Amino acid sequence: MGKGQLGLSRRKFLQVSGAAASSIAAGGLFNTVKATASEHSTLNSSKGKETFIPSACGMCVNKCGLVAHVVDGRIEKLNPNHKFFKSRSMLCARGNAGAAEPYNPDRLKKPLLRVGKRGEGKWKEISWKEAYKLAAEKLAELKQKYQNRSSVAFVSTEGFQEEFFNMLSTSYGSTNTVRHPTLCLASVIQGWSSVFGTYPDADLTEADFVLMLGANRAESFVTPDTIDFQKSMPKKQTLVYVDPRFTSTAAKSDKWYAIKPGTDLAFVLALIHVIVNENLYDENFVNKYTYGFEDLVKLVKQYTPEWAEKECEIQADEIRWIAREYAKYAPRSVVYPGRRTSWYVNDVYFRRACAILTAITGSWDEPGGIVPKSS
Protein backbone atom coordinates (compact mmCIF):
# COMPACT_ATOMS: atom_id res chain seq x y z
CA MET A 1 0.00 0.00 0.00
CA GLY A 2 1.55 3.32 -1.07
CA LYS A 3 1.97 6.58 0.76
CA GLY A 4 -0.87 8.26 -1.11
CA GLN A 5 -3.46 5.75 0.03
CA LEU A 6 -3.02 6.47 3.73
CA GLY A 7 -1.31 9.82 3.68
CA LEU A 8 1.28 8.40 6.06
CA SER A 9 4.97 8.06 5.27
CA ARG A 10 7.14 5.33 6.71
CA ARG A 11 9.05 7.89 8.81
CA LYS A 12 5.79 9.36 10.15
CA PHE A 13 4.45 5.87 10.90
CA LEU A 14 7.54 5.02 12.96
CA GLN A 15 7.29 8.31 14.85
CA VAL A 16 3.61 7.79 15.67
CA SER A 17 3.97 4.12 16.60
CA GLY A 18 7.02 4.91 18.74
CA ALA A 19 5.11 7.59 20.61
CA ALA A 20 2.18 5.23 21.12
CA ALA A 21 4.45 2.50 22.46
CA SER A 22 6.06 4.99 24.84
CA SER A 23 2.68 6.12 26.15
CA ILE A 24 1.56 2.51 26.68
CA ALA A 25 4.78 1.68 28.52
CA ALA A 26 4.49 4.81 30.63
CA GLY A 27 0.88 3.97 31.43
CA GLY A 28 1.82 0.47 32.54
CA LEU A 29 4.65 1.84 34.65
CA PHE A 30 2.34 4.40 36.23
CA ASN A 31 -0.14 1.70 37.19
CA THR A 32 2.63 -0.39 38.73
CA VAL A 33 4.03 2.51 40.72
CA LYS A 34 0.54 3.62 41.74
CA ALA A 35 -0.34 0.13 42.94
CA THR A 36 2.74 -0.28 45.11
CA ALA A 37 3.29 3.31 46.20
CA SER A 38 1.86 2.90 49.68
CA GLU A 39 -0.06 0.43 51.74
CA HIS A 40 -3.43 2.11 51.40
CA SER A 41 -3.15 4.73 48.68
CA THR A 42 -6.48 6.30 47.72
CA LEU A 43 -7.39 8.62 44.88
CA ASN A 44 -10.52 9.86 43.16
CA SER A 45 -10.99 9.28 39.45
CA SER A 46 -13.75 9.11 36.87
CA LYS A 47 -14.31 5.51 37.98
CA GLY A 48 -15.02 6.53 41.55
CA LYS A 49 -13.01 6.23 44.74
CA GLU A 50 -10.00 4.06 43.96
CA THR A 51 -8.03 2.27 46.67
CA PHE A 52 -4.96 0.06 46.31
CA ILE A 53 -4.67 -2.50 49.11
CA PRO A 54 -1.72 -4.92 49.46
CA SER A 55 -2.63 -8.47 50.39
CA ALA A 56 -1.74 -12.07 49.54
CA CYS A 57 -3.36 -14.45 47.08
CA GLY A 58 -5.48 -17.24 48.53
CA MET A 59 -5.93 -19.26 45.34
CA CYS A 60 -3.10 -21.72 46.04
CA VAL A 61 -0.50 -22.61 48.63
CA ASN A 62 2.11 -20.12 47.33
CA LYS A 63 0.30 -17.06 48.73
CA CYS A 64 1.88 -14.65 46.25
CA GLY A 65 1.88 -10.97 47.07
CA LEU A 66 -0.73 -8.82 45.35
CA VAL A 67 -2.24 -5.36 45.33
CA ALA A 68 -6.02 -5.19 45.07
CA HIS A 69 -7.41 -2.39 42.91
CA VAL A 70 -10.66 -1.50 44.65
CA VAL A 71 -13.20 0.94 43.20
CA ASP A 72 -16.02 2.11 45.47
CA GLY A 73 -15.50 -0.88 47.75
CA ARG A 74 -15.48 -3.52 44.99
CA ILE A 75 -12.41 -5.40 43.73
CA GLU A 76 -11.82 -4.44 40.10
CA LYS A 77 -8.51 -6.22 39.55
CA LEU A 78 -5.67 -7.93 41.35
CA ASN A 79 -2.14 -6.88 40.38
CA PRO A 80 1.22 -8.38 41.38
CA ASN A 81 3.01 -6.72 44.27
CA HIS A 82 6.52 -6.03 43.02
CA LYS A 83 7.76 -5.48 46.56
CA PHE A 84 7.03 -9.10 47.47
CA PHE A 85 10.12 -11.05 46.45
CA LYS A 86 8.72 -14.56 46.77
CA SER A 87 6.18 -14.19 43.95
CA ARG A 88 8.81 -12.90 41.49
CA SER A 89 6.70 -9.84 40.51
CA MET A 90 3.94 -11.92 38.98
CA LEU A 91 0.38 -13.03 39.61
CA CYS A 92 -0.80 -15.99 37.56
CA ALA A 93 -4.16 -16.44 35.83
CA ARG A 94 -5.56 -18.34 38.78
CA GLY A 95 -4.50 -15.53 41.10
CA ASN A 96 -6.13 -12.93 38.86
CA ALA A 97 -9.33 -14.95 38.89
CA GLY A 98 -9.43 -14.51 42.66
CA ALA A 99 -10.95 -11.06 42.11
CA ALA A 100 -14.24 -12.74 41.17
CA GLU A 101 -14.34 -15.19 44.07
CA PRO A 102 -16.00 -12.89 46.66
CA TYR A 103 -18.82 -12.15 44.20
CA ASN A 104 -19.60 -15.72 43.15
CA PRO A 105 -23.41 -16.08 43.23
CA ASP A 106 -23.05 -19.58 44.70
CA ARG A 107 -20.84 -18.45 47.57
CA LEU A 108 -22.35 -19.18 50.98
CA LYS A 109 -22.62 -16.03 53.06
CA LYS A 110 -24.64 -17.44 55.97
CA PRO A 111 -24.61 -20.78 57.81
CA LEU A 112 -27.02 -23.43 56.49
CA LEU A 113 -28.58 -26.21 58.58
CA ARG A 114 -29.80 -29.41 56.95
CA VAL A 115 -33.50 -29.91 57.65
CA GLY A 116 -34.21 -32.92 55.46
CA LYS A 117 -32.59 -36.31 55.09
CA ARG A 118 -29.01 -36.51 53.94
CA GLY A 119 -28.93 -36.11 50.18
CA GLU A 120 -32.31 -34.39 49.87
CA GLY A 121 -30.71 -30.97 49.54
CA LYS A 122 -33.04 -29.32 52.03
CA TRP A 123 -31.44 -26.52 54.04
CA LYS A 124 -32.40 -23.45 56.02
CA GLU A 125 -30.44 -20.36 56.95
CA ILE A 126 -29.51 -19.90 60.60
CA SER A 127 -27.65 -17.14 62.40
CA TRP A 128 -23.95 -17.30 63.19
CA LYS A 129 -24.81 -17.40 66.89
CA GLU A 130 -27.00 -20.46 66.35
CA ALA A 131 -24.33 -22.12 64.21
CA TYR A 132 -21.58 -21.65 66.80
CA LYS A 133 -23.82 -22.90 69.61
CA LEU A 134 -24.95 -25.98 67.67
CA ALA A 135 -21.41 -26.87 66.56
CA ALA A 136 -20.02 -26.54 70.09
CA GLU A 137 -22.80 -28.68 71.56
CA LYS A 138 -22.37 -31.43 68.96
CA LEU A 139 -18.59 -31.52 69.36
CA ALA A 140 -18.88 -31.79 73.14
CA GLU A 141 -21.54 -34.49 72.80
CA LEU A 142 -19.40 -36.61 70.46
CA LYS A 143 -16.34 -36.28 72.68
CA GLN A 144 -18.31 -37.44 75.73
CA LYS A 145 -20.17 -40.22 73.91
CA TYR A 146 -17.26 -41.86 72.13
CA GLN A 147 -14.37 -40.69 74.33
CA ASN A 148 -12.39 -40.61 71.11
CA ARG A 149 -11.78 -37.17 69.76
CA SER A 150 -10.51 -38.64 66.49
CA SER A 151 -14.08 -39.59 65.64
CA VAL A 152 -14.51 -36.02 64.36
CA ALA A 153 -13.05 -34.85 61.04
CA PHE A 154 -12.45 -31.20 60.26
CA VAL A 155 -12.76 -30.17 56.64
CA SER A 156 -11.75 -26.94 54.93
CA THR A 157 -10.88 -25.60 51.52
CA GLU A 158 -7.57 -24.09 50.39
CA GLY A 159 -6.84 -20.66 51.75
CA PHE A 160 -5.96 -18.89 54.95
CA GLN A 161 -9.01 -20.33 56.72
CA GLU A 162 -7.57 -23.84 56.59
CA GLU A 163 -4.98 -22.86 59.20
CA PHE A 164 -7.79 -22.02 61.61
CA PHE A 165 -9.47 -25.35 60.87
CA ASN A 166 -6.18 -27.07 61.62
CA MET A 167 -5.83 -25.24 64.94
CA LEU A 168 -9.42 -26.11 65.83
CA SER A 169 -8.78 -29.77 65.05
CA THR A 170 -5.60 -29.78 67.13
CA SER A 171 -7.25 -28.11 70.12
CA TYR A 172 -10.12 -30.60 69.94
CA GLY A 173 -7.68 -33.49 69.73
CA SER A 174 -8.65 -34.92 66.35
CA THR A 175 -5.99 -36.06 63.93
CA ASN A 176 -8.49 -36.18 61.09
CA THR A 177 -8.31 -33.15 58.86
CA VAL A 178 -9.21 -33.01 55.20
CA ARG A 179 -7.67 -29.92 53.69
CA HIS A 180 -5.95 -28.73 50.55
CA PRO A 181 -2.68 -30.53 51.44
CA THR A 182 -4.59 -33.81 51.80
CA LEU A 183 -4.75 -34.09 48.02
CA CYS A 184 -1.70 -32.01 47.24
CA LEU A 185 1.32 -31.39 49.47
CA ALA A 186 0.68 -33.67 52.45
CA SER A 187 3.07 -36.45 51.41
CA VAL A 188 5.92 -34.15 50.40
CA ILE A 189 5.58 -32.12 53.61
CA GLN A 190 5.59 -35.24 55.78
CA GLY A 191 8.35 -36.99 53.85
CA TRP A 192 10.81 -34.09 53.76
CA SER A 193 9.97 -32.90 57.27
CA SER A 194 10.76 -36.35 58.66
CA VAL A 195 14.35 -35.87 57.45
CA PHE A 196 14.99 -32.11 57.59
CA GLY A 197 12.20 -30.79 59.80
CA THR A 198 10.76 -28.62 57.03
CA TYR A 199 9.29 -28.70 53.55
CA PRO A 200 12.00 -27.09 51.39
CA ASP A 201 12.42 -25.02 48.25
CA ALA A 202 14.61 -25.91 45.27
CA ASP A 203 17.24 -23.44 44.07
CA LEU A 204 16.52 -24.15 40.41
CA THR A 205 18.23 -21.04 39.05
CA GLU A 206 21.64 -22.06 40.42
CA ALA A 207 21.42 -25.85 40.13
CA ASP A 208 23.70 -27.72 37.73
CA PHE A 209 21.70 -30.95 37.79
CA VAL A 210 17.93 -31.20 38.21
CA LEU A 211 15.97 -34.41 38.62
CA MET A 212 12.22 -33.93 38.24
CA LEU A 213 9.88 -36.78 39.02
CA GLY A 214 6.49 -36.08 37.46
CA ALA A 215 6.57 -32.33 38.15
CA ASN A 216 5.45 -30.85 34.85
CA ARG A 217 6.72 -27.33 35.49
CA ALA A 218 6.76 -26.25 31.84
CA GLU A 219 2.97 -26.31 31.48
CA SER A 220 1.43 -26.57 34.93
CA PHE A 221 -0.04 -23.46 36.51
CA VAL A 222 2.53 -20.71 36.97
CA THR A 223 4.12 -20.44 40.41
CA PRO A 224 7.35 -18.78 41.60
CA ASP A 225 9.34 -21.96 41.06
CA THR A 226 7.94 -22.20 37.52
CA ILE A 227 9.56 -18.83 36.83
CA ASP A 228 12.81 -20.05 38.39
CA PHE A 229 12.62 -23.15 36.22
CA GLN A 230 12.17 -21.10 33.04
CA LYS A 231 15.07 -18.83 34.00
CA SER A 232 17.32 -21.83 34.56
CA MET A 233 16.66 -23.34 31.12
CA PRO A 234 19.20 -21.21 29.17
CA LYS A 235 21.96 -22.36 31.53
CA LYS A 236 24.13 -25.36 30.78
CA GLN A 237 22.10 -27.34 33.25
CA THR A 238 21.32 -31.04 33.02
CA LEU A 239 17.61 -31.73 33.37
CA VAL A 240 16.50 -35.33 33.83
CA TYR A 241 12.74 -35.76 33.71
CA VAL A 242 10.92 -38.89 34.89
CA ASP A 243 7.25 -39.17 33.95
CA PRO A 244 5.06 -41.81 32.26
CA ARG A 245 3.90 -39.10 29.83
CA PHE A 246 5.91 -37.13 27.30
CA THR A 247 5.02 -33.63 28.49
CA SER A 248 6.27 -30.16 27.61
CA THR A 249 8.80 -30.51 30.44
CA ALA A 250 9.96 -33.80 28.94
CA ALA A 251 10.48 -32.01 25.62
CA LYS A 252 12.74 -29.47 27.33
CA SER A 253 14.74 -32.06 29.25
CA ASP A 254 18.12 -33.55 28.39
CA LYS A 255 16.82 -37.02 29.15
CA TRP A 256 13.28 -38.31 29.66
CA TYR A 257 12.41 -41.65 31.23
CA ALA A 258 8.91 -43.12 30.96
CA ILE A 259 8.70 -44.71 34.39
CA LYS A 260 6.00 -47.23 35.25
CA PRO A 261 3.35 -45.35 37.28
CA GLY A 262 3.61 -45.77 41.04
CA THR A 263 7.20 -47.08 41.11
CA ASP A 264 9.07 -43.85 41.86
CA LEU A 265 10.12 -45.10 45.31
CA ALA A 266 11.90 -48.10 43.77
CA PHE A 267 13.71 -45.78 41.37
CA VAL A 268 14.97 -43.46 44.13
CA LEU A 269 16.00 -46.35 46.39
CA ALA A 270 18.16 -47.66 43.54
CA LEU A 271 19.78 -44.23 43.15
CA ILE A 272 20.64 -44.26 46.85
CA HIS A 273 22.00 -47.81 46.46
CA VAL A 274 24.42 -46.72 43.73
CA ILE A 275 25.60 -43.60 45.56
CA VAL A 276 26.19 -45.50 48.80
CA ASN A 277 27.85 -48.57 47.29
CA GLU A 278 30.10 -46.58 44.96
CA ASN A 279 31.10 -44.22 47.79
CA LEU A 280 29.72 -41.20 45.95
CA TYR A 281 28.07 -39.74 49.05
CA ASP A 282 29.28 -36.64 50.90
CA GLU A 283 31.18 -38.24 53.77
CA ASN A 284 31.73 -34.97 55.61
CA PHE A 285 28.04 -34.00 55.53
CA VAL A 286 26.92 -37.50 56.49
CA ASN A 287 29.30 -37.70 59.46
CA LYS A 288 28.55 -34.18 60.67
CA TYR A 289 24.80 -33.84 60.17
CA THR A 290 23.15 -37.25 59.91
CA TYR A 291 22.58 -40.36 61.99
CA GLY A 292 21.54 -43.87 61.06
CA PHE A 293 23.68 -43.97 57.92
CA GLU A 294 24.88 -47.50 58.69
CA ASP A 295 21.26 -48.67 58.86
CA LEU A 296 20.60 -46.99 55.51
CA VAL A 297 23.52 -48.84 53.92
CA LYS A 298 22.08 -52.16 55.10
CA LEU A 299 18.57 -51.24 53.97
CA VAL A 300 19.40 -50.24 50.39
CA LYS A 301 21.76 -53.16 49.76
CA GLN A 302 18.86 -55.14 48.29
CA TYR A 303 17.61 -52.30 46.07
CA THR A 304 19.97 -52.72 43.14
CA PRO A 305 19.45 -51.02 39.76
CA GLU A 306 18.67 -54.47 38.33
CA TRP A 307 15.90 -54.92 40.89
CA ALA A 308 14.58 -51.42 40.17
CA GLU A 309 14.61 -52.06 36.42
CA LYS A 310 12.05 -54.83 36.89
CA GLU A 311 9.94 -52.57 39.09
CA CYS A 312 9.99 -49.25 37.24
CA GLU A 313 11.00 -50.29 33.70
CA ILE A 314 14.03 -47.97 33.52
CA GLN A 315 17.22 -49.73 32.46
CA ALA A 316 19.74 -50.46 35.21
CA ASP A 317 22.58 -48.74 33.35
CA GLU A 318 20.47 -45.59 33.02
CA ILE A 319 19.71 -45.62 36.75
CA ARG A 320 23.45 -45.85 37.45
CA TRP A 321 24.13 -42.95 35.08
CA ILE A 322 21.53 -40.74 36.78
CA ALA A 323 22.89 -41.56 40.25
CA ARG A 324 26.49 -40.84 39.24
CA GLU A 325 25.59 -37.57 37.51
CA TYR A 326 23.50 -36.45 40.47
CA ALA A 327 26.38 -37.16 42.86
CA LYS A 328 28.94 -35.58 40.53
CA TYR A 329 27.20 -32.21 40.51
CA ALA A 330 26.28 -32.22 44.22
CA PRO A 331 25.77 -30.05 46.19
CA ARG A 332 24.40 -28.15 43.18
CA SER A 333 22.02 -31.02 42.49
CA VAL A 334 18.26 -30.89 42.97
CA VAL A 335 15.72 -33.64 43.25
CA TYR A 336 12.67 -31.42 42.89
CA PRO A 337 10.35 -31.79 45.93
CA GLY A 338 7.23 -31.30 43.79
CA ARG A 339 3.62 -30.48 44.58
CA ARG A 340 0.34 -32.35 44.08
CA THR A 341 2.28 -35.31 45.41
CA SER A 342 -0.42 -37.44 47.04
CA TRP A 343 -1.13 -40.22 44.55
CA TYR A 344 -0.12 -43.61 45.96
CA VAL A 345 0.00 -45.31 49.35
CA ASN A 346 3.81 -45.11 49.49
CA ASP A 347 4.13 -41.44 48.51
CA VAL A 348 5.31 -40.29 51.95
CA TYR A 349 8.13 -42.85 51.82
CA PHE A 350 8.94 -41.89 48.24
CA ARG A 351 9.34 -38.23 49.25
CA ARG A 352 11.29 -39.27 52.33
CA ALA A 353 13.66 -41.20 50.05
CA CYS A 354 14.15 -38.05 47.95
CA ALA A 355 15.07 -36.16 51.12
CA ILE A 356 17.55 -38.88 52.10
CA LEU A 357 19.08 -38.71 48.62
CA THR A 358 19.54 -34.98 49.17
CA ALA A 359 21.08 -35.52 52.61
CA ILE A 360 23.69 -38.12 51.67
CA THR A 361 24.97 -35.95 48.82
CA GLY A 362 25.16 -32.81 50.97
CA SER A 363 22.79 -30.91 48.67
CA TRP A 364 21.08 -29.20 51.58
CA ASP A 365 21.17 -25.47 52.35
CA GLU A 366 23.64 -24.86 49.56
CA PRO A 367 23.39 -22.66 46.42
CA GLY A 368 21.97 -24.74 43.60
CA GLY A 369 20.64 -27.38 45.95
CA ILE A 370 17.66 -27.81 48.24
CA VAL A 371 17.18 -24.94 50.69
CA PRO A 372 15.03 -24.57 53.82
CA LYS A 373 11.61 -23.05 53.27
CA SER A 374 11.80 -19.28 52.98
CA SER A 375 8.53 -18.69 54.79
Summarize the structure.
This protein is of the alpha/beta class. It is 43% helix and 16% strand. The protein has helices spanning 3-6, 10-36, 93-97, 128-146, 161-172, 180-183, 186-196, 224-232, 248-252, 264-277, 283-289, 293-300, 305-312, 316-329, 347-360; strands spanning 41-45, 48-56, 65-71, 74-80, 112-114, 123-125, 153-155, 176-178, 201-202, 209-213, 238-242, 255-257, 333-335, 370-371.
Structure description:
The chain is α/β, with parallel strands linked by helices and 375 residues long. It has three domains: 35-105, N-terminal domain of TfIIb, CATH 2.20.25.90; 134-180, no CATH class; 186-371, Dimethylsulfoxide Reductase, domain 2, CATH 3.40.228.10. The chain is built from 15 helices and 14 strands. It has helices at residues 3-6, 10-36, 93-97, 128-146, 161-172, 180-183, 186-196, 224-232, 248-252, 264-277, 283-289, 293-300, 305-312, 316-329, 347-360, and strands spanning 41-45, 48-56, 65-71, 74-80, 112-114, 123-125, 153-155, 176-178, 201-202, 209-213, 238-242, 255-257, 333-335, 370-371. The longest helix is centred in the first third of the chain and has 27 residues, at 10-36. The radius of gyration is 27 Å and the shape is globular. The termini are far apart. 30% of the residues are buried.
